[in-house]
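User: quick one
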Amino acid sequence: GEDVEQSLFLSVREGDSSVINCTYTDSSSTYLYWYKQEPGAGLQLLTYIFSNMDMKQDQRLTVLLNKKDKHLSLRIADTQTGDSAIYFCAESYTGGFKTIFGAGTRLFVKA
Amino acid sequence: DGGITQSPKYLFRKEGQNVTLSCEQNLNHDAMYWYRQDPGQGLRLIYYSQIVNDFQKGDIAEGYSVSREKKESFPLTVTSAQKNPTAFYLCASSMDPMNTEAFFGQGTRLTVV
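Assistant: Done. Structure below.
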């Protein structure tokens, strides 16, 4: 079946790197996503990676994909207080019409 | 500015009443979606629509209904049959049904009083 799992909380100090982890079960996943949700707001797509890629970097964000272990991670370099939010991992697959979301990881950034 | 707009932001409903949440997009997207978000849980799909005049049930459609009479509009009705309607509701759209990049509205928080 389809399932996406994430740890619920992460706390880091400002300036440190944050690493948010996610595991998924659907081996037919084609796209894997990271979304950010600020309090009381909708989700904002941060980045996505195709399943035939191992890594994607976009400014302070680095996404790593381990297909063998079905493990996805999001690294935020030089974490700022403005990065405090809930981060959702999600997957979708070719021919599918929905995206499966994890429960979200709440990132706390301490000044 | 192009975007997706949900209204109202906060909604209160008495038990036994139906209520309709609005979702409008001017992105010219074919696909639209409704999700429900509860604390500590991922988003769960209620209904989705790939094209005008067509919609499909998601994972938790019971107690909800939708319509897609216009490309830009996808209203969600929460009926009295929904046993636990208090939640944060998110509408999203994507250019195509593959949902490669979904754009989300700001959400509607529904509270049953």
